[in-house]
Amino acid sequence: MSKTIIISNRLPLQLKINENTIETTPSVGGLATGMKSVHKQNNSIWIGWSGITEEEIDASIKSDINTALESHQCVGVPLTQNDIEGFYYGFSNNTLWPLFHYFMEYTAFEKNTWETYIDVNQKFADIVLQNLEDGDQIWVHDYQLLLLPNLIRKQKPEVSIGFFLHIPFPSYEVFRTIPCREELLKGMLGADLIGFHTYDYERHFLSSAQRILGHEIHFNNIHLDDRIVKVDSFPMGIDYNKFHQAAIEHNQKVKEDQTELQQEINKHIKKGNNQAKLILSIDRLDYTKGIANRLRAFEYFLDKYPQFRGKARLVMLAVPSRSNIPQYQILKNEIDQLVGRINGKFAEVSWTPIWYFYRSMPFENLIDLYISSEVALLTPIRDGMNLVAKEYIASKLDKKGVLILSEMTGASNEMSEALIINPNNFEEIADTLKFALEMPEEEQIKRNEALQKRLQRYNVEKWANDFMDSLQATKDDAIQYTLK
Ligand code: ADQ
């Protein structure tokens, strides 16, 4: 029986080795949750890195690790410390990530990390080829594996390959600056179907393929010498029911069963009419997410509208990420200083303007925060999609709450009922915050009703199925085309 092979940099589970026992826990990220519906089918395997380098694995437990992975339909790609340095921290996150998010000043072009990126993509290809059988479909994910589609295609010309990019694809003028631009495009064009979150990213990619490689484009098809590659947009949804259900369970909890965080929130904030409203922000600590901007805009808001001092509080959760890359350390220091300065400037005995958490929180607490906050303020400078915006809305059972969302996120294209802002315009953010905090409940409900309907319909399962159906259709068309 043919199967689907999902490939991403990381496997959808975390491994923990204690002495001689191996524990696995599922990963929480957007991609892992998103692909669950495809992966849970019996005829699918997931190939990726386990999160533990070869140097960290004792030879005596290697086979136990493989068995543990196998029981979750996973296959590990063995990577060394050197691979991770050059491929993950180096070329993926010090070159592609900043460049694709328009942070050109952070983009390093280094020959050695590029070479490791090629080697590691080849390691992934080798494992895929070892597991590939006739009739299998392949779905490759994200910017760490741009070369993989073509590496597989070269060995297996007939195989069906889909590729999805989770981050923005930049405009041609930005993309053309990278020395290995041709190799990257050729790598991606090994796929039959290339998917992006938005129509804009799709157009940028088509324009680069045309202008850099000189390919002919008809609508969204790229004509290669021997094949046609289809390019399309597939805006990723969320597991709507998971968030909706979690919110129901949250609301059913009696006081004693509530999380400590929820009890604290209740104690400090929800004090009858005199309550301070919560403004929530959640992101990985990343310069693309506009966290420093958000803090400055919040400071400006408290300066411009002093009537909100003591009446509104920013709850900011920043999840540690890539903390051994210098830019991330610099950003962490900047945020620490900003939070300290703003809290020092405005705090009163009974009110601190910002609650700042720098850590990962369990899912239960994420739900506490989504449900308890009157406003979500998400201000990325660039973001492929932004799932937090969708999760916030899905968790609002009573449909009350206001989403303020940056126009630089992919999600803003589908969420026009949210309050859409330019993350660089502090004046606009401050005015929108005031507007959000004063928005009548009927209007909140009306906006969220429309948003929820859409999120429920275009959920992550639909996203994955649409992509797979389109991949199948592309392959069928290609067969027809060759027969003609
Ligand atoms: P990310 O940059 O990681 O994803 P995002 O889309 O917001 O950004 O997804 C983050 C996910 O992590 C959410 O599902 C959220 O619930 C979860 N999460 C955040 N904080 C958490 C915490 N403290 N504990 C547990 N879970 C937490 C990349 C791209 C995005 C794109 C996604 C999916 O950068 O633009 O939307 O992939 O394609």
From TrEMBL:
Pathway: Glycan biosynthesis; trehalose biosynthesis. One of its GO terms (biological process) is trehalose biosynthetic process. Its EC number is 2.4.1.15. It comes from the Bacteria. The keyword Plastid does not apply. It catalyses: D-glucose 6-phosphate + UDP-alpha-D-glucose = alpha,alpha-trehalose 6-phosphate + UDP + H(+). Keywords: Glycosyltransferase, Transferase. GO terms for cellular component: cytosol. It is an enzyme of class 2 (transferase). The keyword Glycosyltransferase applies. One of its GO terms (molecular function) is alpha,alpha-trehalose-phosphate synthase (UDP-forming) activity. Belongs to the glycosyltransferase 20 family. Homotetramer. This is Alpha,alpha-trehalose-phosphate synthase. It comes from Aquimarina algicola. The chain holds residues 1 to 484 of 736 of the full protein.
